[in-house]
Structure formats: structure tokens, C-alpha cells
Amino acid sequence: QVQLVESGGGLVQAGGSLRLSCAASGRTFNSSPMGWFRQTPGKEREFVAAINWNSGSTGYADSVKGRFTISRDNAKNTVYLQMNSLKPEDSAVYYCAADSRWRSTWSSNVYEYDYWGQGTQVTVSS
Predict the structure, then answer these.
(1) What DSSP assignment string belongs to the chain?
(2) How far is it, in rounded angstroms, from Cα 108 to Cα 94?
(3) Which of 32, 31, 23, 51 is nearest to 99 (CA)?
């Protein structure tokens, strides 16, 4: 059974930092892009960041560029999201996602990802 398990969420003050982790099990995603998305109540899930299979290419939503950094460790089958200079508007449930197919590039499209974690809550207080 394939599982993606996020961790690292929590409550932080504005300007603070958090590091999210997503550990995959049940299969390897070393040849596939992985990403982070977030969602708030009543809104659609939105793209945050993505990384291709060998970390050669990354992409970010405009709202997080320069503040968030995505990385991965294929030996650990894990993807990370370092979040700095957090703002109250970054508060959301953050989801890890993985594409089941081999791709050379990443995607910001939620429908391109086949596996999802259960989400981890990030709350940024002002």
C-alpha cells in the first residue's frame, strides 16, 4: 500500500519558519516529480511547489517564491518544504503529492498527481 505521510506542521508566529517533511512508503518515487499543495476551507487546493525527479528543476507559486524551498532525498524517498518568513495567509492544510509516472519535469496541476498525503495543518499567527 502506497502512503505519503506529512509531518512538521504546527503553529508559528508571522515571520517564523517551519519545515515540512513527506515520507513515502510502499513504492519509490525516485523517477517521478513530487509536489506540495495547500488548501483552506471553502477554497480549491492550490499549488505551492514542485520538484522533478533528480532535483534539477523546481517550481513555485508566485505567492511563496523567495520564501519557500522544496527539496528531496531520493535515498529516503522523502520530499521537504522549508518555509521561511511565514505570513498569516500561508495558513492552510499542506498536502504532499506524488506522480506515479516517470516524468522529466514537474507540474503545478493538481490532476497530474496520483498519490496524496493526509495533510498537515500550518497556522501562522499575526
Answers:
(1) --EEEEE--EEEETT--EEEEEEEESS--TTS-EEEEEE-TTS--EEEEEE-TTSS-EEE-TTTTTTEEEEEETTTTEEEEEE-S--GGG-EEEEEEE-SS--SS----GGG--EE---EEEEEE-
(2) 15
(3) 32
| Percentage of the residues of the chain whose pLDDT score is greater than 90 | 94
Parallel/antiparallel/unpaired status of strands 92-98 and 34-39: antiparallel
Torsion of CA 105, 71, 23, 62, to 10 degrees: -70
In this predicted model, what pLDDT tens digit does every residue of 59-114 receive, in sequence order?
999 999 999 999 999 999 999 999 999 999 999 999 999 999 988 899 999 999 99
Mode of pairing for the β-strands spanning 78-83 and 68-73: antiparallel
